[in-house]
Automatic annotation (TrEMBL):
Residues 239-269 are annotated as: Disordered. This is CREG-like beta-barrel domain-containing protein. One of its GO terms (cellular component) is extracellular space. Residues 64-234 form the CREG-like beta-barrel domain. Residues 244-269 have a biased composition (Polar residues).
Length: 269
């Protein structure tokens, strides 16, 4: 067994504590290096247009590549909480004119898988329901900027790169008591709790509808809209992300010359 040695100080001897060598110096140096690194990081991110910070952001809810038109349409429909709904007016002074309204929608309950079908409540007290009762054809528009995605990323909502879709079809009333009515109502209540009060208010007589799609037009890049077939639309899964298409892919729309940002060069039309 080894007995540890112990050093005893002599009686009356004062023990002076010895400070670690260079402790303050190392603290000052650490602060200086940290400040330099943070400043460099901020400058680098500013010069790269924020791309450095974007590397660390969660892109699980990022929109799909603009070349995947069907997936973009499904993505916007699934995210939508409301749409701009256009109908043909039945008001005498503007009969036959286009009329637009804001209508709350849901394609599934919040957090659940996309269905691609827009459900919404209408009441005959509102002019949209009156229009659709006469002619149930309608068009809805959805934009990527509904949650200010474009605005936050410095893209004007009117720019083609701020994706939008125009979905045309007919409004179909869903009969109460069916499985689809239960699904659509639950989806609406999940995203729009106020809807429960709408249907309980005497005299308003809200009824559930869905959009039976005829055509889908997607505008998410320069070069004009792209039309998505119903087969492609229903087959697309917005919950699955895929890698952006290569710039060499011939199916990718090119930037027209008038939108070229490189002086002295033109893009393929």
């Amino acid at each position: 067994m080894t007995i540890p040695s112990v050093t005893y100080k002599q009686f009356g001897e004062t023990v002076v504590p010895v400070a670690p060598v260079g402790t303050k110096r190392w603290i000052v140096l650490y602060i200086m290096v940290s400040a330099i690194l943070l400043t460099t990081l901020a400058c680098w991110n500013n010069l790269s247009g924020g791309s450095l910070i974007e590397m660390f952001e969660d892109d699980s809810d990022a929109p799909p590549p603009h070349t995947e038109y069907a997936k973009m349409a499904r993505y916007l429909v699934h995210k939508a909480e409301w749409v701009s709904m256009g109908s043909l007016s039945t008001v005498d002074a503007i009969k036959g004119f286009p009329m637009v309204n804001i209508i709350s929608v849901a394609d599934s309950a919040r957090g659940e898988k996309s269905t691609g079908t827009l459900y919404f409540y209408l009441t005959m007290l509102d002019y949209t329901a009156q229009d659709l009762d006469r002619d149930n054809r309608l068009t809805v528009m959805l934009t990527l900027d509904q949650d200010l995605y474009c605005t936050r990323n410095g893209i004007d909502p009117m720019e083609p790169t701020c994706a939008r879709i125009m979905v045309s079809g007919r409004a179909d009333k869903i009969e109460n008591g069916t499985a689809e009515y239960a699904f659509g109502s639950r989806a609406m209540f999940s995203r729009h709790p106020a809807a429960q009060k709408w249907i309980q208010t005497d005299g308003h007589n809200f009824f559930l509808c869905k959009l039976n799609i005829t055509q889908i037009a997607v505008l998410d890049f320069y070069g004009g809209p792209h039309y998505v077939t119903m087969a492609d639309y229903l087959a697309a899964d917005p919950d699955k992300r895929s890698k952006a298409a290569s710039s060499s892919n011939t199916s990718e729309r090119q930037i027209p010359p008038r939108f070229s940002t490189t002086e002295g060069t033109t893009a393929t039309p």
